[in-house]
Amino acid sequence: MARRVSTYSLVACDLDQGEWGVAVQSKFLAVGSVVPWADPEAGAVATQSYANPRYGPDGLALLRQGLAASEVVQRLTDADEGRDERQLGVVDTAGRGATFTGSGCQDWAGGRTGPGYAAQGNILVSGETVDALAETFEATDGSLAERLLASLAAAQAAGGDRRGQQSASLLVVRRDGGYAGLSDVVLDLRVDDHETPIAELRRLFFLHDQLFGKTPRHEWLRVDDELRAEIQERVRELGYERLEDWAGVANLEERVDGDDEIDPVVLTELRRRP
Fold this sequence. Notes:
Elements: E1 7-14, E2 19-26, E3 36-39, E4 43-49, H1 55-64, H2 69-78, E5 86-92, E6 97-101, E7 110-114, E8 117-121, H3 128-139, H4 144-157, E9 167-174, E10 185-191, H5 197-212, E11 221-222, H6 225-237, H7 243-249, E12 261-262, H8 264-272
Antiparallel strand pairs: 1-2, 1-8, 2-9, 3-4, 4-5, 5-6, 7-8, 9-10, 11-12
Helix pairs in contact: 1-2, 3-4, 4-5
């Protein structure tokens, strides 16, 4: 018998940046392997409760055909005999959100939508969890990933999953926005089994941003003779001849570009090393 993915999730987009994403938390092992689906050419989907995993790829396929989020929800659930136990959230490429909660989902269960998002949850302490997802997303500034994380934390503070916490994930996509510009996955972070999965997910997000984020070029530091000497000395003390060699080992190579300027994140990390 399938396990119920008792959870709360937020499916959302940032149309200005061309990003779509899903944030989710659940008392369920490795929720990120089941619930979130996203494609910058289609939109994003969350499938949960007694989750139908086909809702993910099938929903994205329907979105690629140009169907609105509400039409996608209707088509998926109409074709599914187990619809009464399903929960689903969809955001399309126009930023329209739609959510579905089957009549067989355990209380508290429900969802709400707004501009650019769909929020839903089941087996929750109360509807305040979904309200916190929606209201925090609407009120928070920053990147899509930052807004999704803030919403997830607010939902947990409002009560969260009635059974507790176990896993969480954060997925964000943008056309050519991933590693080296050769992937659409901006980030795909998962905490599969943890006492405080949202806090751990936030830690991983900050680590990801340090390694793969981009500091605006106007914030880079000019490397004068004194700073150049310091950089060379520190690199050699660490056993390397060039900054690029050390940065490659430290997974900071994406933040190194030439010798005349240095990303402050790289310099801080270099100075932090013993």
